[in-house]
Each structure stands twice: as C-alpha cells, then as structure tokens.
Amino acid sequence: KFAGTNYIVLFEILNCLASGLTMYLIIRYTHLLFKNKTLASASAVLVMLFAPLVIYATFIYGNLLCIPFALLCLIWQKKGLDAKKSKKRVLYIVASIIAGAIAVILKKPIIVVVIAAAIVYIVWGIQNRKFQFIAVALIGAIVANYAIFPINAFVESKTHTNLHNGNPMITWIAMGIGASSEYYADENGDEELRNNTHLAGYYDLYPWITPGGTYSPESIKETSIEYIKKRIGHFASDPGLFFGFFANKIIVDWTEPTY
Predict the structure, then answer these.
(1) What gap in Å lies between CA 20 and CA 9, rounded to an integer?
(2) Which end of the chain has fewer CB atoms at under 10 Å, N or C?
C-alpha cells in the first residue's frame, strides 16, 4: 500500500541501501578480525569491484537484504566474545542471534552463516572452558531456524494459503539435471529439445509446468520422477550430452555474475 504500483522501485532502493551497507560492514568486519588498516583497505577495494552486489539491486529477492544482517550477526558475535564485561557480552550475543534470525527469515540458505557462528561459539566455549556457550550455539541455531514459523502462520491466516503446499524438492532436482528438457521435448514433439544444453544452470520455468487449477505436490512429484528417469537414461546412452550439459552448468553457476 505504501509504494502502490512502484513497489518494485521501492524494493530496488532497499537493495541499493543493503548493497552499500554490505560493503561497509565487510570492511568493518575485516578490521575487527585483523586489526589491520591495510587489510581493511584491501577488502574495501575488493568489495567495490564485486559487481554482483550492484547488479543484484534489480532483483526482487531477499539475497541482498539478508547479507547486512548476516554480517551483523558475525560482527556482534565477535564483539560479544571479545567483551570484558558480562552485561556487554550478553547484549552483543543476543543482538547477534536476532540479526542471524532476521537474515534467515529474509533468505533461508543464509542459515549456513548461523551454523558457522554456532561452531565458533562451541569452539570458543571449549577453548575457554565456558561450556555454557554450547547452549548459546544451540539457542542461536534454533531461533534462526524457527523464527519464520510465526510469520508463515500469520501469512497463511491472512491469505488462506498453505505455504507448505509448494513444489517438492525433487522438482528442483529435475530442473537441475535438465529433466525439464525431456519434458518440453515430449510436450512440443521436438526431439532436438532433449539435447538442449544452453539452459543448463538457468531457471527454465519447469516448476511452473502444472496449471494453477490442477496443481498438486503429488502430481508434479510423479512427473519429476518420470522425467528424471528419462534424463538419466538419456545421459547413459549419450555420455557426450552428460558432459556437455554439466560443463555448461558449472560455467553458468560459477562464472555468470549477472544471473
């Protein structure tokens, strides 16, 4: 309601702010870890040259928005563990856990940062014989993982939508190995589509193959299993397609900064 039809522009502005904040926090975190201005300056140059931080400002995802919170989680953890006073340590650690939870709410895969922070708590606690930090690690991981649940429940109650009724994971596996090419070949009667490798590594709309009115997790799961089997059979009979497809996929995944 606040942005009206310009909600995409608002999201892009927030992404721009998150991008700038991310750059600043990376520099701060580098200095906090190494206490070295030269290294901090080097990190500033490297992060400014990292094009995806700017390019992703146009994407309507939580990718950029979650990174500042993930960095704050790590920065406040470091400050908390370095703090001499117990009260200050507790405040920083609580703030770190909250920041980690917000980051995970914005983008679930960022939980790897929370897991890394939990490992740091455990190792630090063992090294300093402060075993209560093992409990801190567990609390941080649990809070981050389950913080989204009340938000999901609120959205479900307002939209009357079952958020757990989405595509099963096997749908994404099917798209990831190119089983979608087998599906599109059958649907369009075009055998050449089975040898298609130019979409390897890209999102090819396969998760949307089922019309909204007929969608069910069970039906797309069955379809995905069927076409995964076809794809594996095709790879077995044509090793060149197998190597060509995954070579393209690796290239796209690791060298295409605009996607």
Answers:
(1) 17
(2) N
